[in-house]
Design a protein that fits this description.
The chain has two domains: 185 residues, 3-Layer(aba) Sandwich (Rossmann fold), CATH 3.40.50; 163 residues, 3-Layer(aba) Sandwich (Rossmann fold). Helix content is 46%, strand content 15%. It contains 16 helices and twelve strands. The longest helix is centred in the C-terminal third of the chain and has 26 residues. The structure holds nicotinamide-adenine-dinucleotide. Nicotinamide-adenine-dinucleotide binds next to helix 8 and strand 7.
Length: 472
């Protein structure tokens, strides 16, 4: 029975245990999969103004069953060892689930980034990277960080530059970190990847007739109402893509400074622009401010997307949640004890380890690009385009009909990097959903998507260990 108020790490462990009981994996092997293999806790000094500040930071490698390990770096004042361990554990399961051949890891720096200047953040990031290099906790074949809460492509550039300074001449050095700007060995489509993956994942569920019948909803995304908590990287792309490509109506947004609501729907692109200009979402034309930012979570809607931090849906508010579907864009937004309540209410929870796996999927593509030293599509784009053109010409000759220039340009286009990245991401999210759905339908006592996702991930990791001969 789950503890009544579990912290994030305990929630992950509770969820693990619940799913592990549905497998036939031997206990010793389950124990090995569950634990964090290496935890590096560090303290280092950074000069801020004319004072020294001691910074607390972590890098946790949860599982070495595949290398390199992979996971983002979080900058937040709430960072602590157990939080990073929880996030690193989720990364292993996430990678296994979407067939990304990495072990899981995560990093955390306990600072509030808003309180530092760009120069100071650069100094902190470079010093953190130096500590990782010193302990051999970073490298394209060792451990590969990426952005997470409070970090972006900017920090990834500083990490790369610091790493390269230590490893002059290492040919694959660019693969030591992902989520870099495109001009700095990054890949097109990485910034939007997590949000785009959330969209593909939700679309798969919403297109499922049987699941929608059970919720009393029409299949399909169009016209569904959505509430988003957190308008950072993941929340903003989930919002814009769901709105533009899924025709979803976003009725409320909650951010640090407050929550806003509009029955008619909120244009997310315009809201992001408004926030950039004014520093707040509050006051956006056509919306009402809600009393508390947490109130948005309790609104009646089809899809609730928590995209900020963990433990925001807990035992205290789970009963008041009126959404039909919760799409965990953030890591760990629903505690294990809250989930028991939500499932009893018939709410579908689409779990973090699946739904936000788009980020690590495209990070994997970026890493492959770095190792191949070539942009995706460079070799075949023109060749494919010419082949399609020959086919269209042949069609015109054989039928005597002509294809308009506009149609011709659509039909004969070769794929660019962004097309291939989006296609690979969509393929990954669709496949992973079908696998989880199939396990949920087939396995007795496996009644929720999180358990099904866990069963899938644990089975794959266990099989890796068995193939290594560690657990014959
Ligand atoms: P971010 O820093 O870009 O954005 C988070 C946003 O949430 C910020 O704008 C912040 O102001 C807001 N926020 C914080 N507390 C809030 C609260 N109580 N109510 C409302 N808003 C609040 O971070 P991100 O990269 O978008 O990450 C968000 C979540 O998604 C995290 O859990 C992260 O681990 C997860 N995630 C991120 C990625 C990625 O690629 N960035 C990948 C997978 C999972």
């Amino acid at each position: 029975m789950a503890k009544s108020t579990p912290n994030f790490y305990e929630s992950v462990q509770n969820n693990f245990d619940k799913a592990a009981a549905l497998t036939t994996i031997p206990k010793g092997l389950l124990d090995q999969i569950k634990v964090c293999n290496a935890v590096y806790q560090m303290r280092f000094p950074v000069r801020i103004g004319n004072q020294y500040k001691v910074v607390e930071a972590y890098r946790v490698q949860h599982s070495h069953h595949r290398l390199p390990t992979k996971g983002g770096i979080r900058y937040s004042i709430h960072v602590n060892q157990e939080e990073v361990m929880a996030l690193a554990s989720l990364m292993s399961y996430k990678c296994a689930l979407v067939d990304v051949p990495f072990g899981g890891a995560k990093g955390g720096v306990k600072i509030s980034p808003r309180k530092y200047t760009q120069d100071q953040l650069e100094r902190i990031t470079r010093r953190y990277t130096t500590e990782l290099v010193r302990k051999n906790f970073i490298g394209p074949g060792i451990d590969v960080p990426a952005p997470d809460y409070g970090t972006s492509s900017k920090e990834m550039t500083w990490i790369l530059d610091t790493y390269v300074a230590f490893r002059n001449g290492e040919i694959d050095a660019a693969g030591c970190v992902t989520g870099k700007p495109v001009t700095q060995n990054g890949i097109r489509g990485r910034t939007e990847a997590t949000g785009r993956g959330v969209f593909y994942g939700l679309r798969e569920l919403l297109n499922n007739k049987k699941e929608m019948e059970a919720l009393g909803l029409e299949p399909g995304m169009a016209g569904k109402t959505m509430v988003i908590q957190g308008l950072g990287n993941v929340g903003s792309y989930t919002g814009t893509i769901s709105q533009d490509e899924g025709d979803v109506k976003i009725i409320a947004v909650s951010e640090y400074e407050g929550a806003i609501y509009s029955e008619k729907g909120i244009d997310i692109q315009k809201l992001i622009k408004f926030r950039k200009e004014t520093g707040s979402i509050v006051g956006f034309p056509g919306t009402k401010k809600m009393a508390k930012r947490e109130d948005a979570l309790e609104l009646e809607c089809d899809i609730l997307v928590p995209a900020a931090l963990e433990n925001v849906i807990h035992k205290g508010n789970a009963k008041k949640i009126k959404a039909k579907i919760i799409g965990e864009a953030a890591n760990g937004p629903v505690t294990s004890s809250a989930e028991e309540i939500l499932l009893k209410k018939g709410i579908i929870v689409v779990p973090d380890m699946y739904l936000n796996a788009g980020g690590v999927t495209v990070s994997y593509f970026e890493w492959l690009k770095n190792l191949s030293h070539m942009r995706f599509g460079r070799m075949e784009k023109r060749f494919n385009s010419q082949t399609y053109l020959n086919l269209v010409d042949q069609f015109e000759r054989m039928t005597g009909k002509s294809v308009s220039e506009k149609e011709k340009s659509i039909l004969t286009r070769g794929a660019d990097e962004i097309d291939l990245v989006r296609s690979g991401l969509e393929e990954t999210m669709v496949n992973a959903f079908q696998q989880i759905r199939e396990i949920k339908a087939r396995k007795k006592r496996c009644e929720d998507y999180r358990s099904a996702a866990f069963v899938n991930a644990l089975t794959k990791i266990a099989s890796d260990y068995m193939n290594m001969g560690v657990f014959p």
